Automatic annotation (TrEMBL):
InterPro entries recorded: DUF3626 (IPR022074)
A Pfam family recorded for this sequence: DUF3626
Protein name: Uncharacterized protein DUF3626
Biological source species: Kitasatospora cineracea
């Protein structure tokens, strides 16, 4: 399938700014997200994905696990204009790139776990239409890469960042369809036997499981300096049966009773400290 003109222009623009050896074989792009949230239309996110058949950008969905700035003149619009040489300035929302991360550490949790407990692992064939930057686009990066010229691995590995902040951002140009471009949806095991698993299995891609995130509420005070004691206090309050896991955070989010930014920081604590030893 021929790529849209704006995608070709964006790929060409980034390729001209990239250098280094080709991307090593066996690395994947992943799209991390929270699978138990609802979209701006009130529809559960996995149900909306099954309806649409494709992963949509923030410009289309109006939702985000980061900031909501995907509109003309907004921060994300300006970042994309800068990174892609204005290729998407006049493009409709449904033809803008979707964001993920290069899983260069080969983590079972995906390349950017700060953005969610679940991830789609994309087919290797999508790499030829991906561009990359380091650090995240919010920081106005100067280092870029493509599958044919990837110096970013050395840049990222040399940067001393928190484990949640060392992502190599990926941009997929062109559609990301669940039936053609996704190798698997990888979920946290806390969702086994739940509505999330049922909804996930309605998608036309395999479902897999990673080792999971669990943090005993009794351990939370030890991490109060990570995002603040108000965050660990909230985490303890929403833990269920003495354990914080992604499903507990999702349940708290659906009540609408908590600051979404605080819940995001609760997730950061769980993502950072709630993995089984050795995973």
């Amino acid at each position: 399938m021929e790529q849209p003109s704006e995608a070709r222009a964006a790929l060409s623009h980034v390729a001209a700014r990239s250098s280094g050896d080709p991307l090593p074989a066996g690395l994947d792009v992943t799209l991390n997200f929270h699978p138990d949230r609802t979209g701006s239309d009130g529809i559960p996110i996995l149900a909306a994905m099954a309806r649409d058949g494709a992963y949509r950008s923030q410009f289309s969905t109006g939702t985000s696990n980061g900031g909501l700035t995907a509109h003309p003149g907004g921060d994300r619009w300006n970042w994309e204009s800068r990174i892609f040489g204005g290729a998407y300035d006049g493009a409709p929302a449904e033809r803008r790139p979707v964001y993920g991360a290069l899983n260069y550490r080969r983590s079972p949790y995906g390349g950017a776990p700060r953005f969610g407990s679940a991830h789609f692992r994309l087919m290797p064939g999508t790499l030829h239409r991906a561009t990359f930057c380091y650090p995240d686009s919010v920081f106005e990066p100067e280092d870029f890469g493509t599958v044919d010229a990837m110096s970013l691995l050395a840049v990222a590995e040399a940067d001393e960042q928190d484990a949640l902040d060392d992502c190599i951002e990926a941009h997929l140009h062109g559609p990301v369809r669940f039936d053609a471009h996704v190798a698997a949806l990888v979920l946290d095991p806390c969702y086994r036997g739940t509505e999330v698993e049922t909804a996930a299995r309605a998608l036309p891609c395999p479902v897999e499981w990673h080792p999971g995130h669990r943090l005993p509420a009794a351990d939370l005070p030890r991490h109060a300096d990570y995002r603040g004691p108000h965050v660990t206090a909230l985490a303890a309050a929403i833990a269920r049966d003495g354990v914080l896991d992604p499903a507990a955070i999702g349940a708290a989010a659906r009540t609408g009773q908590h600051d979404p930014q605080h819940l995001k920081q609760v997730w950061h604590c769980l993502a950072r400290f709630g993995r089984p030893a050795g995973s």
